[in-house]
Structure formats: C-alpha cells, structure tokens
Known about the structure:
By secondary structure, the protein is α/β, with parallel strands linked by helices. It has 19 helices and 14 strands. The protein has helices at residues 11-36, 89-96, 137-145, 162-174, 180-192, 205-212, 215-233, 279-282, 286-291, 324-331, 352-365, 379-405, 426-447, 465-496, 510-538, 554-559, 561-579, 588-617, 632-639; strands at residues 42-49, 56-63, 72-78, 101-105, 150-160, 238-242, 251-255, 258-262, 267-273, 302-307, 312-318, 335-341, 542-544, 547-549. The strands form 3 sheets. A 10-stranded mixed β-sheet has the order 1-2-4-3-5-6-9-12-10-11, with helices on both faces. The chain has a two-stranded antiparallel sheet with strand order 7-8. The chain has a two-stranded antiparallel sheet with strand order 13-14. A hairpin with a 4-residue loop joins strand 10 and strand 11 (312-318). Helix 1 (11-36) packs antiparallel against helix 12 (379-405) and helix 18 (588-617) packs antiparallel against helix 19.
Amino acid sequence: MKEKKFTLSTREGCLRLLALFLCIILAASLCARIVSTDFGKLKIEKLTLDVRGGALAAEMYYPAGTNADDSLPAVVVMHGGGVNNGVMRPLAAEIARRGFVVMNVNFYGSGLSEWVDIDDGGQTPETFTEAGTPGGLLDVVKYLQNVEFVDSTRIGIAGHSAGGVRANAALLKGGSIFTYNDLLINVLYDTFGQTFTKEEIYQDASELAKARLNDDQLAYFEKLAADVKADYDNRVKTIVCLGAIQTNAPQTVTVGGIEVSRTASTNFFSATGTYQKNSINNMSGEALMGSLYSGEPIERNCYYALDDQTGTSTKLGGLADRSSELVAAADARRLRGVGFNTETHSENFFSFGTNANVINMMELTLNHDSGMATSDQIWLIRVIFNAIAMFAMLAMMFPFFGLLLKTKFFAPCAAEGVKSKVKFNKKLFWITAVITVAGCAFAMYKANTAGPFEKYFDNLYHFFVGPNQTRWYLGLAAVVAIIVLAINVVAGKKACGETGLTVFGNGIGVKAALKNLLMAFLFTCFAYISLLCIEYMFNEDYRLWMTAFDEVKMENWFEMLPYIICVFPCYVVISAAINYTVRDDIPAWKDTLIVVAVNSLGALIVWAINAIHNAFFFVGTEWSSFTCSYNMLLMIPLTV
C-alpha cells in the first residue's frame, strides 16, 4: 500500500503538512500585502505616537513617492468599541488609494494604544466619559498638521460607532462653533471696542473694519485676522460618523456682544445602516431635524446646507452631485447629510456602500478629485487573502499538535482512554441533539443581550461587550452541556450499570495533565509567533471581518487571566458533553461533521431569524443583535 505523504499519522507526514500550511500562510499574506498597497502604489507604515505619557498606535497610509513638496488632504479613521483599527483597514486603504494621507488609529486604551492620565479632551480617569473623549483623534490631527506633505487646512475625521462618538467629541473640543466672520466680529468687539446690531454681525467683518478703524488700527486688525484665519483653517474641516446618526444641535453663543444660535463650523455627515437601532426613526427625530433647522423628516442620501442667520437649511442634491452650490457650502463648512445603506451596524466597516459614502464626502469637502469611481474598490480581495492565511494557521495547529504528541516527552498526553461499556443509542443521541440546538440558540440569544448578570462582573472583567458576550454564551452553553451529560449518565447507568464518565479519566495523572497545559501553552506560542512573522514581513494579520488574531501587549495577557479562568471550566464541561458519545457506526469524519453541526446550529438559527426579522419586520430594533458577536458564528464551529 502506498504511503501517504501528507498525514497526521507519522512524524514525516506532520512535518510535510506543517510546511505546506506555512507556505500557504506566507503566500496569502504576501498577496494581501500586495493588494493592500494597491500593487505598490501605497506606502503603509506603523506608527506609535506618545504625546501625553501613553502610546497611541496607528497605521499611516499615503501614496508611494510622496515628498515634502506635496500638499495632500488627510483623513483620520477610528474604529468602534469591541474591535481594533484592523477592522477599518478596508476604508483606510480605499481612501488612501484616492490620493489621501490616512491615519488608521487605535483609540486610547484599545489595541496597542495605552490609557493616559489626561486625554486630548482634558479628561482624567475620574471625569472620563465615552461621549466626552476624542480618544486620541485630536492628538493625531496635531501630528498630521506638522507632516510636511499634509495640507493642514484639509483634514477630516471618520469614526465608526464609538469612534463616531469620539469624532463628535473631537469636533466639540477641537472644532469651531463660530464662523470665520464671527471670529473677526469678536476681534473688533473685544480688541477695538466696536459695537454692532444683530444685522451688522452678519456683514463682512473686514469691510466693517475698513469703514470703522484708522490706518494703524486696521493694520493691527489685519495682523490679528491673519492669525485667526490660520487657526480657523487648521481646524478639522469634515467629520463623518459611521454606524449611528450623530447630531450637533445649534448652540447659543455670543458674537459681537449679541447672543445668537450657531451650528458647528465643520462639514458633518452620518453614514448608517438600515438595520441600525432606531436609525429610520431618527430621520424624523427632533434632534436631527433641529440640528439641520428642518421642520420635516430628513431625506436619506442627500446633502443640506445650513444657514445660521435665517435658521434654515437647503437641500442641495444627492451624494454623487458636485454642483457649485454644494462646493460653496463645503468650502464654507456648512454641509450636512445622512447616508443609508442596507446593512447592520457592524457591516458599516465591511461595506462597499459606506466606503463610497465616506469617499464622496471627503473628496467633496476636502477639495480633492481623484478621478476614481467610488465603486472601484479592491479591499475584499485583501480580506480573502487574510482569511486564507487565518484558516491555514488554524489548520497548521493540527500537524504541530501531532508532532508534539510524537515526542517522548508529550507522548503520555495521548494515552489510550478507558473503553466505555455504554453503547450508542440513536434515539437518545437525537433527543440530546435537539436539546443542544435549542439550548445553544437560547444561549446565543441571551448572550446578545450581554448576559443576565453582567453588572455584577464589571469590576472583574475589563472588556468591551464582545468578549463578555462570548463568556455568557459559554456559560449558558455549559449549563446546556451539564443537562445533556446528566441525561446521558442516567441513561447509561440504567442501560448497563455504568455512567460512561470513566472514559474522561483517560488514564492521565497529574504529571501528564501538567504536560497537557504546557502543550496548550506551546500551541498558543507557535500560533502567536507565526502572527508576529507575517506582521513583521507583510504588515498583515489573521483576520476575517470581526474574527481576528492580532498582536497583544504583554500586560494584556495578564488582564485576560480572570477571563481565561472563567471560561476554562466551561470548555471542560462542553467538551465532556461533545465527546461523551463517539459513534462507531459511521466514519469518524462524518461523526465529527454531525457533532460540529449540532453544536453550531443554535447560533446559526438565531442569526437566521434575526436576518429574516431585519428583512421583513424591522421597525427600529433588531430581534437579536449580532453587533459584537458575528465572530462567534465562525468561532463556535472552529472550537467545537
């Protein structure tokens, strides 16, 4: 019989498989790198800024061949909660392909970025609020303003979800509620003692200065006006909030000693999904209508120009329009709009439509015409290669595991188990299968509400919603596993006087158990080393949408210990229930496939019901939101 070259049964076969999967990882990561740089047209660098005693990690994209004589528009991109800046790479790359400088940032306290004692919004740990922190956006903007090839007067920000909240905070902290003319009127009022009527504050301040000031005063005014102009032009020109409809209500301010109503002097756009919570209702909400001076529901996918003097807004056209009125409104920083795409919250950063919305807004408001269609997007190709590398990494763990078990040191970990006398009962199997599917569906549904006891563990687990949802799913799934085990034990005892649990003793003592833990540690280290290699060589990671294996700071491993301690017993119980019945009436591969399907079906059913609900019955809220748990649809079958 011909010997198999690629097999887990022999050491040589394991080595060949290991080499094969390593080659696939390297080839896929190289291809992902080629696509991400737009076949060499983009340069991508990892940066770490430290301007306030804490690292701020970012990726910088810009056209290859850029030099100090260039003056390019720039966009700062920020992710939302529960993920890092890796999810924003599709958007960052597509903006950069069109001639922009792009900074893709991990906000303070996320990814490789650290917490700081005083953030760029002036907040301390005692005064910190999610809505009040720019999360490092203003620090990045200041950095870009000092980059030689960036035009500091053409800088925008795009943030998703919590990143959009931070973008809004950056606007309030670092933007201007005053128009340029307002600022000059205040110079005349505060410095030269000029007084005005309400009508006069809307007149050209420079013309008023020429009519009212003597030559020396006018010369000084013009010097002050130049300083004001430089500061005003260097304020963020455009904000795009993704995944939610953010609003900026008119504020009461004083101009020339007179109280007036003003909206932010920054172009502002929201891009959201049809299935975003309350997004449709918000179009007719008082907050959005009031922020746009409208007495009617706001229309989707069109631009409005605001007029603070009359307290009105004018609809100017669709997102692809480039009329002179639109350009004038953008130059005056008076442009507003809301874009809608048929997608959920987490699909906003995995979306051709949302990318197009952001590109349209940035090109229009930052005075940059790339000549490239918004439909010309290649980010999905990179995603496919990253996914191939990720699955190859997971597959690579099997031959690595096989090699360890074939060493003298780890061989005891593969000791033969005790043969159970409990026979396979087809009827009982399908009864427990139905219980498993129903129980896991309930676990997924409840996990999507962040668990029933979340408030009691806030001080123990310092994670965002995503990891907490995983913990609650595993906890509830473990309860289901205990029920299934109990049914099997009772049935086994009744049928042959044996519980069937002796099979899990596996003949392994304390020494071998410790070797198992060591093997798991080596398993993790090997996977992590492979990740560091492709990050160093290609600046790529293992990723498919929200499922990612990414670099972690050393201290974060220790922060994960309480989480690991919590979920480990859950995995033990679930594993016992999964492996209680090993069928010998069908091939092993078919048995494995059935077990994976049974234990994954519950989560898939919940997702399917939610998708059907969104398509036909959505009225403002999803039935079971997968906002932070889409990755579980892949991780559940993988871990089973």
